[in-house]
Amino acid sequence: MAPPAQTNRSPSPSQPSGKSEVTDLKSQLRQLAGSRLPGVDDSKRELFKKVISYMTIGIDVSSVFGEMVMCSATSDIVLKKMCYLYVGNYAKVNPDLALLTINFLQRDCKDEDPMIRGLALRSLSSLNVANLVEYLVGPLNAGLKDNNSYVRIVAVIGVLKLYHISVTTCIDADFPAVLKHLLLNDQDTQVVANCLLALQEIWNGEASTSGDAMKEREALLSKPFIYYLLNRIKEFSEWAQCLVLDLVVKYVPADSNEIFDIMNLLEDRLQHANGAVVLATAKVFLHLTLSMTDVHQQVYERIKAPLLTLVSSGSPEQSYAVLSHLHLLVMHAPYVFSADYKHFYCQYNEPSYVKKLKLEMLTAVANESSTYEIVTELCEYAANVDIPIARESIRAVGKIALQQYDVNAIVDRLLQFLEMEKDYVTAEALVLVKDLLRKYPQWSHDCIAVVGNISSQNVQEPKAKAALIWMLGEYSQDMSDAPYILESLTENWDEEHSAEVRLHLLTAVMKCFFKRPPETQKALGAALAAGLADFHQDVHDRALFYYRLLQHNVTVAERVVNPPKQAVSVFADTQSSEVKDRIFDEFNSLSVVYQKEHRGPFEFSDELGSLAIGTESDVPAHVVEANDKDLLLGTPDKEESRGAGTNGSAYTAPLYDTSLLSTATQVQPELPISNPAAAGLSPQSSLAIDDLLGLGLPAAPAPTLAPSPPPLKLNAGAACLFTASPTGHILIFVMDRSLSQELSVSPQGAAALTTPQTLPRHLQGHSIHCIASGGQAPNLKFFFFAQKAEESSIFLIECKINTSSAKTQITIKADDQSMSQAFSTLFQSALSRFGTS
């Protein structure tokens, strides 16, 4: 075989061709280690860059560790930085290599250049090796007393790192006392800020075990110390100012004079260009004045202008963070921002998450004077190319309509949405019209006139379809086609995968029946039949409840299902006031952005909804099909199974035999009653209800005895005559002729099949033994065999059961075909007793 052709492409300078590249680097570094020739530092830089690039892409260059350390003996700050980066990377994962770096890092901590001293101390404290903490105490002590502020800044953070590596070493070296001295006396504000951060973390950690640490932590919240920090706050960096302001929030002033003194000191911080400083200052103002109602309202007015300014400047991300806090303030005091509603108008180039927040705020600040302009603006957004924002704008119009008394213009706008030829606009408008009619039933005539022109076939979203069905049932007396629309929906029951829609359909048909019984009795019978056979637990239970109500008394059923209704005055809020208050306490934190209460480190509660913008959709029902590959006796025919939505529960509802309900769709002769409420049906007259609705279900069916078994006798001790193949399939005798039949399972038997093994155990008591079973609800599959007593004749049975329809398809094969019918009768007799004994 010829060797592969050689290519002329040279390897990338950042990709080594093999171990030889690292070996070459090592030899070159060793040559340059002791050299002091001119330009040697430039050569070292090039080699150091190669080493760092290899390390960055994941190539192991730890073999050049010694050479890198030797080449670090230079005053070139760039080489020092790259060497410290290399050392820090490998020292963390290899403590033995870390020990080699101690000497040269300690030597660099005494360098004349303060930058090198600081970098060396930072690298030394970042090794994070518990066995080397004894080498860290000396350099940290020297660094805390260094004349250069940069070295002191690094040393303070180094003390905090030491505390996390070894608490005992940090406390025994008395570092907290040194940090406290620097906190009160150092002239550099960054050193003071670092000391404040480190002491807060150390004393918070030690407060649970040490009384002295608790006292020191409380001393940080004393009046002299707080005033000391506030008087110097202008000298601090933006990060340090936020740190100081977070501490001030925890301070409890002695009286109102202190409150006004602190607010006067921080007044100019509201004009700061940094949003974090403004929000931290606003939090101080809000918390200090919680007990002063009048002043608290003035604080809202004072912080409003700076926050609105921040929203209009900066990046979209910053605008969103500030808007989230403004949203919280608007929810607490909407009247303060009612005159500034134009600040919350959406700009065309804003991201969706910003627009969504602005729409919520527009909804909150709308009042009688601004409603018209706000609704006009929101209607413009309904035609937005961003569909989620268009949906949100329509919802916002509906929310404003529900909180205002004068809704004339708003209702007209909502009805115009229904006439737009956009599915999502129509869907959202239907949901809002339903809520509007619940609060303002006097608008039913105008709304129903428009809703009646909407075809139910054009509404596909579950919530919108449920709203349309609700209106068809609630106002069926005003909509001439309501019974017929409901009837067509009932006929397509199996095609509706949303349980919410099926529940609304059941209730709407019941309401329509009480108002227009002759036109609705067929639809009601079909709906109850389909509901009783429904696989969803809630739908099944509601259908059964309605059926038993009608059995009991029609008048009572009407009072329960369709009572006189009162207008809804207040709709439930998605957020409780307690949750809002707890989020308000966490002002200037991620809790406000996520709108969730903070429970612990990196953990937020799930009490509130997500902020994600998008349409809500029901989980599609899963269609469970029979696995025909497992058929052993099999017929090629596939079973038909209806995809049934479930409620997520492992419990399977007891299902009724749909064969008893087959007459539901047949037209029944109308009974001569004009008002079902006048019938006053009692439990004894439930048969009339069954006849009226076409259900064919007697109220109390008389117990019937199972057919007596034929004289065919089976061998109870028959042994299994079949063996399993290596693939797990059963090897059986092939019999050409077979008998196929379709049987029904009792409702009790279908319910018992939630545990499939109950059927084999039952049939074993009738000398019918199980070979194998499989499938998944609602389609189950069993294979049985039986042997005739005192003879060698055998029967093979394939049994396929659909628990949803309570139907059983059996295929019987026998070597004596004359006994097939007798065995079929015996099997049917045994199956009829399943679930009843």
UniProtKB/TrEMBL annotation:
Q: What is this protein's function?
A: Subunit of clathrin-associated adaptor protein complex that plays a role in protein sorting in the late-Golgi/trans-Golgi network (TGN) and/or endosomes. The AP complexes mediate both the recruitment of clathrin to membranes and the recognition of sorting signals within the cytosolic tails of transmembrane cargo molecules.
The UniProt similarity line reads: Belongs to the adaptor complexes large subunit family.
- Name the SUPFAM superfamilies on file: ARM repeat
Protein name, please? Beta-adaptin-like protein
How it assembles, according to the record, is: Adaptor protein complexes are heterotetramers composed of two large adaptins (beta-type subunit and alpha-type or delta-type or epsilon-type or gamma-type subunit), a medium adaptin (mu-type subunit) and a small adaptin (sigma-type subunit).
Q: Where in the cell is it found?
A: Endomembrane system
Main location per UniProt? membrane
The protein's UniProt keywords, in alphabetical order, are: Membrane, Protein transport, Transport
Q: Name one Pfam family in it.
A: B2-adapt-app_C
Q: Name one GO molecular function term.
A: clathrin binding
Q: Which InterPro entries match?
A: AP_beta, AP_complex_bsu_1_2_4, ARM-like, ARM-type_fold, B-adaptin_app_sub_C, Clathrin/coatomer_adapt-like_N, TBP_dom_sf
